[in-house]
Task: inverse folding
């Protein structure tokens, strides 16, 4: 299954391997695409990845994690992003962009913003609690970012609602202590996310898929667990196409029970209880592990992170190990794995 194609709406992937979004912190204060990004991402397209998920890209200059994050808050970002998408397409892969706002985990200014005035930890300042006018402005930023994503040639958009950043902060009772319509009940805590989705869909074409990355558990007492995330996805599944399942990040506690494929169980539960496509992974390093993720019905697509940092050509090597004939770039054919080397 790993090297079978996958279709959703207008998106057709050559295989089910996804490069997970991983911040490179290699931009400048303007949030521009730099040569590093062009080389880094295009290498994975050449290496055979099906879908490349661009790192968290800030919809606002004040929504960056650091001053070296990529941005999509200005029309001036479009040309650089378009150069990147063109290179990815030229080499056979598809590319999605992760639209993000760091919330209280931003270190851009001395005062970040969040649903509630509570710092992430002692290394961060106390954020300003967002007023409704502030929320309207951020929603507008997501809307305009979606328009720029379309102009830049992205095949899909992913809303970053995980890892303790702004949307995740609204979703989690550990970070959201509001008393208005954005806080309290689970339904109220999804209001901001529902509005973000609505803002994005005003500009993002209906025939192109919308992904959403979630943290299926907070790893802390009183926080969300997968049962809560299933309820959240149930509320939203008519508006999004694929759930990208990760974990943690909203409070400063370590992940527990980390092992190869440790996030697959939650991806399985969300996929099967909500009847929606998922991307699953977590510490996957081998083709056998990736194949198991698909064969066990845990997910429809498999993401790899650190392993693709170590080996941009992981798909080409994995196809050889699985006796799957995969096209190689003609420039690299002299280096193609041959059957006589299979035992090496």
Result:
């Amino acid at each position: 299954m790993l090297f079978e194609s996958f279709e959703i709406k207008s998106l057709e992937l050559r295989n089910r391997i996804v490069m997970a979004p991983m911040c490179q912190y290699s931009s400048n204060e303007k949030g521009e695409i730099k040569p590093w990004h062009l080389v880094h991402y295009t290498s994975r397209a050449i290496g055979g990845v099906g879908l490349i998920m661009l790192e968290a890209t800030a919809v606002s200059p004040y929504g960056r994690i650091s001053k070296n994050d990529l941005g999509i808050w200005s029309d001036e970002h479009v040309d650089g992003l378009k150069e990147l998408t063109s290179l990815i397409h030229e080499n056979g892969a598809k590319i999605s962009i992760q639209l993000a706002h760091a919330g209280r985990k931003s270190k851009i200014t001395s005062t970040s913003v969040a649903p509630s005035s509570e710092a992430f930890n002692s290394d961060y300042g106390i954020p300003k609690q967002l007023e409704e006018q502030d929320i309207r402005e951020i929603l507008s930023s997501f809307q305009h970012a979606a328009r720029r994503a379309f102009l830049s040639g992205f095949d899909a958009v992913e809303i970053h609602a995980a890892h303790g950043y702004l949307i995740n902060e609204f979703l989690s009772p550990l970070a959201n202590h509001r008393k208005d319509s954005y806080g309290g009940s689970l339904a109220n805590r999804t209001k901001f996310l529902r509005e973000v989705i609505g803002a994005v869909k005003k500009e993002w074409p209906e025939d192109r898929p919308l992904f959403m990355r979630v943290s299926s558990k907070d790893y802390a007492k009183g926080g969300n667990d997968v049962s809560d995330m299933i309820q959240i996805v149930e509320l939203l599944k008519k508006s999004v196409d694929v759930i990208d399942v990760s974990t943690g990040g909203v409070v400063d506690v370590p992940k527990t029970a980390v092992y190869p494929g440790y996030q697959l169980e939650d991806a399985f539960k969300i996929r099967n209880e909500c009847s929606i496509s998922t991307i699953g992974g977590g510490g996957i390093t081998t083709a056998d592990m990736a194949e198991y993720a698909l064969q066990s019905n845990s997910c429809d697509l498999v993401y790899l992170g650190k392993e693709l940092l170590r080996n941009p050509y992981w798909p080409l090597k994995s196809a050889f190990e699985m006796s799957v004939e995969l096209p190689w770039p003609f420039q690299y054919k002299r280096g193609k794995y041959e059957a006589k080397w299979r035992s090496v």
